[in-house]
Design a protein that fits this description.
Elements lengths: L36 H10 L2 H5 L18 H18 L4 H10 L8 H13 L7 H12 L13 H9 L23 H4 L1 H19 L5 H7 L1 H13 L5 H5 L1 H7 L8
Helix pairs in contact: 1-4, 3-4, 3-9, 4-7, 6-7, 10-11, 11-13
């Protein structure tokens, strides 16, 4: 009897990364009876200590003024949702895209990018550096200790490659320790997808959180950003008496600017 996957994976496009074509794991493991290698990677990431720690790490705004601001964990979940949706629409491997989205920020320190810059400054005084992608690789390869037979999470090559290459390029001369990750080649499309869906998530959320923090003056924004003022007026006219925050909802503004509204 052939084992069946518990998840329905859409038919993959020719340009998608297939689980059976994976370069496998650093430490060989027998196949799982009903989960693909990328589904297992996703699950290992979700159950890791480093993933849980994202909850206490700042995205942009701290919880000092509101409990409703995104943190690094909720941002990661939003990126994963968008990544899976876009990957499915493009015929890509949704399990790989979701795993990469869930792990893409796992190496971030507290205090957002300011924390990363400070750590890098301190490390350079000792001849080193700090980069959240490189740190993410250290976390999944060494720091996570969950198995008797090997260190780390033993993720597939494609997820480890995506951690390194999803948002920037690395020179083999400058980073010889990364040579195994085919630095002269682009990663699978599922990895290339992560940076743009990350931008979609934070560009929308940061504005929403800035409004929650009362840092945005919508009257000034409407006056100084013409297309936004026009879109806001259209939405307000269609919903007289609506609360300002609901008129401002990014999906409504997007729709009035000509984009398709998504009711997440």
């Amino acid at each position: 009897m052939t084992e069946q996957s518990i998840e329905s994976v859409p038919t993959l496009a020719p340009w998608a990364m297939r689980a059976e074509e994976s370069r496998s794991r650093r430490h060989p493991e027998p196949p799982h009876p009903y989960r693909s290698v990328y589904a297992r990677d996703r699950d290992r990431i979700i159950h890791s200590r480093a993933f849980r720690r994202l909850e206490a790490k700042t995205q942009v705004f701290t919880t000092r003024y509101s409990d409703h601001f995104r943190n690094r964990l909720t941002h990661t979940l939003e990126v994963a949702q968008i990544a899976r949706t876009v990957a499915s629409a493009l015929g890509l491997n949704t399990e790989l895209a979701e795993a990469l989205a869930l792990v893409h920020d796992i190496g971030h320190p507290p205090f957002g990018h300011a924390g990363e810059r400070k750590l890098d400054e301190l490390m350079r005084a000792h001849g080193g550096c700090f980069n959240h992608n490189l740190h993410a690789l250290r976390i999944v390869e060494q720091f996570e200790q969950r198995y008797l037979d090997f260190p780390g999470l033993n993720l597939t090559f494609e997820v480890r490659e995506g951690i390194i290459k999803h948002s920037r390029d690395y020179s083999a001369a400058e980073f010889p320790q990364l040579a195994e990750y085919l630095l002269d080649l682009r990663p699978p499309l599922e990895a290339q997808l992560i940076d743009p869906v990350d931008e979609i998530a934070y560009n929308t959320a940061d504005i929403d959180d800035a409004l929650e923090a009362e840092l945005l003056d919508l009257a000034v924004l409407r006056k100084e950003v013409g297309f936004f003022g026009e879109a806001y007026t259209q939405v307000a006219s269609a919903h007289p008496g609506a609360r300002e925050k609901l008129i401002f909802t990014p999906r409504r503004i997007q729709r009035s600017c000509g984009g398709a509204e998504s009711r997440a």
